[in-house]
Each structure stands twice: as C-alpha cells, then as structure tokens.
Amino acid sequence: MSTYIETEPSFVPVQTRSERPTSYDPADFDAPTGREVDWKFSDVARLSPLFEDADGDPQAIDYEIEPEAFVQAPLAPGQAPRGEAFHPEDLPSAIAWKRTAEALHLVIPAGLETQEPVRVSIRGLGAQLRGHAHLVIEAQERSRAIVVLEHTGSARFAENVEVLVRDHAALTLITVQEWEDDAIHASAHQAVIGTGASLKHVVVSLGGAVVRVNPSVRLAGEHSEAQLLGAYFADAGQHLESQVYVYHEGRNTKGRVLYKGALQGASAHTVWIGDVLIGRDAVGTDSYEQNRNLVLTDGARADSVPNLEIETGDIEGAGHASATGRFDDEQLFYLQSRGITEEEARRLVVRGFLLEIVQQIGVESLAERLAQAIEAELSGGAS
What we know:
There is one protein chain. The chain has one domain (17-327). The chain contains 5 helices and 16 strands. Helices cover 15% and strands 43% of the residues. The termini are far apart. By secondary structure, it is mostly beta strands. The protein has a 16-stranded mixed sheet that branches.
C-alpha cells in the first residue's frame, strides 16, 4: 500500500533577463541578499543604503545643465512620456522612481542636429547624503545629438535614466562616473529605439567605491541599431559593475556590445553581465557582444558572464565572447625590444587597451580628459 503525499510546487528561480519581474512599487521587491541571479556578483553590503525606501536628502545632489534650452517642464510619475520606456527591475530603481517627484526631461527637437553636446553635470555633495533621480532623455524624429552625464563628488545615489529614441533619430548618450572614493551609485538606464533610429550608449566608470550602471536597450523598430560601449578601471577596494541587456524586438535590427576593463590592486572587483534576447519576430537580427578584462595585479577579480537567448532561427548572425587575462608577453617583449622599459611597456598596453573605447566617444575634449584620467589611474599603481 502506498501513500500519496501532496507537496508544494518547487520554487523555480528566474534564470533569464527576459523573465525578471518589474514594478513601480518598491514593496514588490525584497531587499537583495546576494543570492539572487541579478545580485550574486554585486557588493550588496555596501549598496545596502540604496535599499531603504525613504526620501532622499534635499541637498544631496547638485545639477548643472548646459545648454538649458533642451530642458522641458519636469515630469511627475505617470506623466507622459515618463514611464514609456522605463520599468524598474530592482529595488533601487523602484525607490528612485517613487521618490523622484519631478523627473528631469531633456528633449532634442524633431529634425535638429546639435553641434555641441548637451552636458548634465551631477555632483554629489556628501558621502552620507542619499539622493534619487529620474531623467527622461527624448530624441525626437530625425534629430541627432550627443548627451553627456558626468558624475562627480560623493553621495549615495540611486538614478534612473529613461531614453526615447524616436524614428530615424540618432542619439549618443555618454555616462561618466568619476566619483570620489566613498561614493555609492546604482543607475538603471532603459532605452527604446524606434524605426530606423540608432543609439550609441557609452559607460565610463573610473571613480566611486561601488558603481553599478545597468543599461537596457529595446530595439523596437525595424532597422533600428544600438552600439553599447564600456570602459572601466578598478583599483584597490573598488567594485565596478554593468549588467547589459539588448532586446532585439523589431525586424532587421543590429546590436553591438563591447566593454573593456582593467583592474589593479587588492580586492579590485569588476562585474560584466551581458544578456541578449532575440525575439520571435526579430528576423534578420545581427547581434554580437564582447567583454574583455585585463588583470594587472594579484588580488583583483573580474566576473564576466555573456548570455544569449534566441527565439527565432531566421537571423543574420548572433554571438558573444568573453576573455579575462593578464598582459600579453609577446606584446611586452616587442615593446621592450624597442628600448622601452617594462613599466612603460605595461602602461602603453593598458592605455591602448582602454582607449579603443574612449576614442569612439565622439567628443574630442571629453575623450582627451578621460585619457588623462586613465593615465592618472595607471600612475597611481596598485595599493
């Protein structure tokens, strides 16, 4: 005689990026423990101040926007186009949504081609001050523009960036993290790209104690394109992270992802997770993602995880690659054979490795400044 015992259905954790739940209500998210798929490589202990659902400090963040002509009236939660592209995937982004009463709204008017970048300077005013922000950047039909977000100073800062690239528009969005050593920053970027439109998205992370910038792009329109670039340099004690998501939804879309990082010093830690979803209707997709890391000293760790989901076989191509290693001995030998010292040879290799990304920014003055900042990182050495 056998006895049937009814059991509760087993819990199946979320395995893919496309399955992650979204909500505008922070109460729908548990505080991360580090066991979740989207937090298992993160420094949740140091990010924990951003898990508290409370108002931010009014004077935590100072903004400077130039030129101001592109700034429109601020957007309240639920006021279009706020929320058209943005759906919080985690607790900090849901809190930032809820606690930002007025979202900054930048608009590039239809048909306009800007000659100079629109600069948004975001400066933290204190390491113990907590701030929230939601930015909506809208490139209207057939416009062309470059927008630069520059983060400096220090704060505990949860930030949402919502990007709308309308039909046949071309937008370059560059976010630079040059925080002080004690800053904590979690930023979620979510973009929707229309028919025949393109987005170049660049993440450069050099400063801060813990910086987590997660860009998500939905190629919704036919013949839309996205290029996602990233450069980061982590030194002792730093945690720099990006979780990239590219969703090919429309037909004949193209996606390219290239992130490159360097690490030096004990407990320097970088995380790159690249998720690509090719939807069932995304015929003709052309997609490739790549992450490369250069570990300069013992004690540094780079986590790199590429993922690819394909729901249709009618595509042009799709692939991914990930590599983490130390210096190429042949490169060093070649440079030393030309009379260059080993120390300078190493600096040249790292500089060239990261400048491949920086040189594609498209803003000469910014690229030069970031090249100098990378040189300063190299000069600092391991600690």
